Amino acid sequence: MSDKSExxxxxxxxxxxxxFMGEVLSIEQLMRDYQVSEKTxxxxxxxxxxxxxxTKCEDGYRLAPVSxxxxxxxxxxxxxxxxxxxxPSGISFSSAYQNLLFKNPRTENTESLDVMFRTLSxxxxxxxxxxxxxxxxxIESVHPYRLVNDRGLWYLAATHSGIxxxxxxxxxxxxxxxxxxxxxxxxxxxxxxxxxMEWLTAEKADVLLQVDADIAEYxxxxxxxxNQQILKQLEDGSLLISSRVTxxxxxxxxxxxxxxxxxxxxxxxxxxxxxxxxxxxLERL
Length: 285
Description:
This protein is of the alpha+beta class. Helices cover 37% and strands 27% of the residues. It folds into 3 domains: 3-99, Arc Repressor Mutant, subunit A (Orthogonal Bundle); 111-200; 205-284, Alpha-Beta Plaits (2-Layer Sandwich), CATH 3.30.70. The strands form 3 sheets. The chain has a 5-stranded antiparallel β-sheet with strand order 6-5-4-3-7. The chain has a 4-stranded antiparallel β-sheet with strand order 9-10-8-11. Strands 1-2 form a two-stranded antiparallel sheet. Strand 9 (228-233) and strand 10 form a beta hairpin. Residues 117-175 form the WYL domain. This is Transcriptional regulator. GO terms for molecular function: DNA binding; DNA-binding transcription factor activity.
């Protein structure tokens, strides 16, 4: 996890913990405690913690009176925001939060994403269809589902033409909200929770492979992988090959068929996913 995402996770979890302990938190005090701007803290309360039972009072922010006695609610908030993944699955955050401390969380710089965050959050809540200006092209009729922080990077998880994609917020230049709405799919929401955003990227991904010499002829004779390019034939007869794929997951079945004669050099996430799937297959034997 990046340094900034860890800082964000720590700040949000610490704010929740202090509220559930009965503290009244002022923006001025939090600015000193966390060394962040007033704008960042307003965004914490107005966007990131919008579902938490927090109310604004004369002295700052406090837990809504009806919620203060129901500390287990913190487990639900942590789970819905994804922060519970930072704690071992057997640990109840609501009972152990006083013993936990998150230090130096990481995330990308989000200061320039303030308006975009608010616009997308409103569209998701109201289920409005949107158009995106993304990396120089306009993507129409996008169904926005959730804002996701994956390994410190912020993504919009959304469907386009019925397919789930992830869009880096830093690469979105404009958002156009339509007046028509969409009906969210429970299956899509489940997929968002279970898949890494890198696997859903709307951009093409480059895969670098090393192919053993005894199967090199199959890759030399034809296009075995999408947009395949032979980069180099090594002295031992093995090949360095690149493949540009629309989604990383699409190439997994082909790679599994050639294992262990093919080694994924990059991206590391694809290599780890292949290892995970192979281990899962061995466990079923």
